[in-house]
Amino acid sequence: MLGTRGVPAAYGGFETAVEEIGSRLAARGHEVTVYGDRAHPRLDEHLGMRLVHVPSLPVKQLETLSRTGIATLHAIAGPPPDAAFVFNAANAPYVSLLRARGIPVAVHVDGLEWRRAKWGGAGRAYYRWAEARSVRTADALIADAPGIADYYLREFRVPTELIRYGAPVLHRCSTAPLRALGLDAERFHLAVARFEPENHVLEIVEGYRRSSARLPLAVVGSAPYSADYTRAVRDAAAGDDRIRLLGGVWDQELLDALYAHAYTYVHGHSVGGTNPSLLRAMGAGTATIAFDVDFNREVLADDAWTFRDAEQLATALARAEADEPLVIARGLRARERAARVFRWEDVADEYERLAEELATGASMHGLGRTARRTVQNAR
Questions:
Q1: Which of 4, 208, 227, 294 has the most other CB atoms within 10 Å of its CB?
Q2: Torsion of CA 52, 58, 59, 61, to 10 degrees
Q3: Span 13-166+345-374: which CATH code?
Q4: CB distance 51 to 43 below 8 Å
Q5: Alpha carbon distances (Å) from 40 to 55, 85, 207, 249, 343
Q6: Which residues are in the Glycosyltransferase subfamily 4-like N-terminal domain (predicted)?
């Protein structure tokens, strides 16, 4: 499993997926190797997974590519594994190297990364090229949301393996970690996101500030490469004592307490597939106010308040604070849906099935290697 920062998971959705899936496959007796960065250089095993640490260039445009490139060279230098899972379509240049070594490869494509505002013209062009390269070189493509699967079918007329993320389900969670933050259980709104334009953190802060909300807003997140955007968020929050900018939170017990005891979770992500932060809020039984895009509506089964701008968010916050019984009911329904639809055991089952199929020769390469974007969707 390569293409991520590795495990223990402490960064994003791909890392969480690697930890949840890889640990379960290891527990079933499979030999699982995870490539990652050097955050834990003395740790060579984690939850049954073998860890290999490789360096990377600390530059936004090159960090992932350099890390995965070195991981690929390491993988092809040794005995070939039965199958490889490459996370993030940006790593497409290395798929053909793995296959040339006789290693079948599935690429877990990201959620239309080229749409993210943080990338300039060259970055967006690269990600669109990488999508096509993944289609033409991989033995299988993995999509984590129906919208992503539909996109690849529409754009390239190729099938994907639809394998969702799982959700951690919390039934009891201590309120003690909240005390140090001055927050009371069920008496605050929560937003958790990297500070990036497509996550609409700025609109969330602006909308909250315009609202008549009585409960404070706790914002968890940071942006290692977006100083200007972070400054804009801070400026928008300045002078409003109701807004608590908590920065990055890596303490899992505190994160669980925040998700589980928020009055509502405000989800501003507009790009990507099935988002782990949204699933975490659902599994914690917290009602959601979500940015109005198909990905979010599908995950929530349209059982949430939605917004598209700051004014709509202000209205949604007012409606939520005025209807606590609905907030409670939506939270309970969200947790039930998370427990029923988004199960990590089911996800591991699908990865195990796909790995076994790849190891015995199954491949979409014959179809994908000649695929081109459909004319009407060309850009």
A1: 4
A2: 10
A3: 3.40.50.2000
A4: yes
A5: 12, 21, 39, 18, 28
A6: 12-163
Q: For 279-331, how does the pLDDT look when each residue is reduced to its tens digit (9 = 90+)? A: 999 999 999 999 999 999 999 999 999 999 999 999 999 999 999 999 999 99
Q: What is the SS3 assignment for 332?
A: helix
Task: Return the beta strands (E) in 47-154 as ranges.
Answer: 49-53, 84-87, 105-108, 140-143
CA–CA gap between residue 377 and residue 74 (Å, rounded):
37
- What mean pLDDT is reported for the chain? 94
Tokens of 324: 């606590």
Backbone angles phi, psi at 242, to 5 degrees: -75, -20
Give the per-residue pLDDT at 226: 75
Q: What is the CATH number of domain 176-341?
A: 3.40.50.2000
What residue type is 219 in one-letter code?
V
Q: Where are the domains of the chain?
A: 13-166+345-374, 176-341
Q: Is the dihedral of CA 258, 259, 261, 266 positive or negative?
A: positive
Q: In angstroms, rounded to a whole number, what is the distance separating the alpha carbons of residues 15 and 50? A: 15
| Token output for 1 | 């499993």
DSSP of 162-175: E-PPP----S---S
286 membership: H or E segment, kind and range: none
Query: Strands (DSSP E) along the chain, which ranges?
Result: 33-36, 45-46, 49-53, 84-87, 105-108, 140-143, 161-162, 189-192, 217-220, 243-247, 264-267, 287-291, 305-307
Compute the distance between CA of residue 15 and CA of residue 43 in angstroms, rounded to an integer.
16
Half-sphere exposure of 258 (CA within 13 A, CB side): 27
CB 186 within 8 A of CB 363: no
- Tens of pLDDT along 156-168? 999 999 999 999 9
Positive or negative CA dihedral for 270, 167, 18, 349?
negative
Q: Would you call the peptide bond into 8 cis, given omega within 30 degrees of 0 as the criterion?
A: yes
Q: How confident is the chain (379 residues) per 10-residue block, as mean pLDDT?
A: 93 88 98 95 96 91 93 97 97 98 96 66 87 97 94 95 96 94 97 94 98 98 83 97 95 96 97 90 98 96 98 98 98 98 98 98 97 68
Phi, psi of 249 (to 5 degrees): -120, 115
What six digits make up the tokens of 47?
């939850």
Cα dist. 102→50, 78, 143, 244 in Å? 21, 12, 24, 52
From the CA atom positions of the chain, what is the Rg in Å? 21
